[in-house]
Automatic annotation (TrEMBL):
<dbReference type="InterPro" id="IPR003337">
    <property type="entry name" value="Trehalose_PPase"/>
</dbReference>
<comment type="similarity">
    <text>Belongs to the trehalose phosphatase family.</text>
</comment>
<dbReference type="InterPro" id="IPR006379">
    <property type="entry name" value="HAD-SF_hydro_IIB"/>
</dbReference>
<dbReference type="InterPro" id="IPR023214">
    <property type="entry name" value="HAD_sf"/>
</dbReference>
<keyword id="KW-0479">Metal-binding</keyword>
<comment type="function">
    <text>Removes the phosphate from trehalose 6-phosphate to produce free trehalose.</text>
</comment>
<dbReference type="GO" id="GO:0004805">
    <property type="term" value="F:trehalose-phosphatase activity"/>
</dbReference>
<keyword id="KW-0378">Hydrolase</keyword>
<dbReference type="InterPro" id="IPR044651">
    <property type="entry name" value="OTSB-like"/>
</dbReference>
<dbReference type="Pfam" id="PF02358">
    <property type="entry name" value="Trehalose_PPase"/>
</dbReference>
<protein>
    <recommendedName>
        <fullName>Trehalose 6-phosphate phosphatase</fullName>
        <ecNumber>3.1.3.12</ecNumber>
    </recommendedName>
</protein>
<comment type="pathway">
    <text>Glycan biosynthesis; trehalose biosynthesis.</text>
</comment>
<dbReference type="InterPro" id="IPR036412">
    <property type="entry name" value="HAD-like_sf"/>
</dbReference>
<keyword id="KW-0460">Magnesium</keyword>
């Protein structure tokens, strides 16, 4: 369904800018703790944030605290753990919409699983638990089954599949809902939403943005509801840099 059309340039005067992190701003790597922005890309991102008056948020499956480390010294509004964590303004407090204890039985089941299968990696994000199988693709089914069994018939928990990961977190939130909430508040309210993301979990946000007449951008080759496509992380950063150059020259950005 995704068009191969490249997106219009970002208009910092009109767009509310929402960006995914892994696979969009940073390349996917084997070790989730070892990600980094490509060299020279943080400064244009910070200039974009300034140009849009702070109407830029990172919307990620990551904890906001982890994003802070990867994007330092930039401070930014964010939805973390698929919207279960929120920071409305760059210097605001991070709110958590649920508590960690709900996941304790799953936490125990996953700890036992990785003892039996040490090639699986467990990432404990507090409000979400992730099993990583990027470096052990033969264990994908083991991980998926374990997640499904650990959740069982608990309707308060959700199993989500991402890029070489299976994740369990409290139900009721996703990136689309998080984006819609942020659009109700300054400095996003009244702007046109723009979202770029690469993974299946980004589809919730891409769908909300497309329905609202915004700019929905899929990064990579997977199927998507998005209207536009960028090929990879490098293309995302070229797009940001080009958009900033247009703004700096005071030329009219191309309509979105
Ligand atoms: O919403 P995102 O910002 O895209 O975060 C999604 C998940 O990102 C991380 O996992 C992904 O990136 C890792 C590092 O490149 C990679 O090893 C893994 O296979 C990817 O799925 C993060 O570890 C997860 O917690 C996020 O949910």
């Amino acid at each position: 369904m995704t068009d191969t059309t490249p997106p219009p340039l970002i208009d910092p005067t009109a767009h509310a800018i929402f960006l995914d992190f892994d696979g969009t701003l940073s390349e996917l790597v084997d070790d989730p703790a070892s990600v980094a922005l490509p060299e020279g890309t943080l400064e244009p991102l910070m200039r974009l944030q300034k140009a849009c008056g702070g109407a830029l948020a990172i919307v990620s499956g990551r904890r906001i605290g982890d994003l802070d480390g990867f994007l330092s010294p930039m401070r930014f509004a964010a939805a973390g753990v698929h919207g279960l964590e929120r920071r409305a303004t760059p210097d605001g407090e991070t709110e958590r919409l649920m508590t960690e204890a709900e996941l304790d039985p799953v936490r125990e089941a996953f700890a036992s699983l990785v003892r039996d299968h040490p090639r699986l990696r467990l990432e404990d994000k507090g409000l979400a638990l992730v099993l990583h199988y990027r470096t052990a693709p033969d264990l994908e089914e083991v991980a998926r089954r374990a997640a499904s069994e650990a959740v069982g018939d608990r309707g308060d928990l959700l199993v989500m599949h991402g890029d070489n990961i299976v994740e369990v977190h409290p139900a009721g939130m996703d990136k689309g809902k998080a984006l819609a909430d942020m659009m109700e508040r300054a400095p996003f309210k009244g702007r046109t939403p723009l979202y770029a993301g690469d993974d299946t979990t980004d589809e919730y946000a891409l769908d909300v943005v497309r329905r609202r007449g915004g700019v929905s951008v899929k990064v990579g080759a997977k199927d998507s509801v998005a209207a536009f496509r960028l090929t990879d992380v490098a293309a995302v950063h070229r797009w940001i840099a080009q958009s900033i150059r247009y703004t700096d020259k005071n030329e009219d950005p191309i309509d979105g």
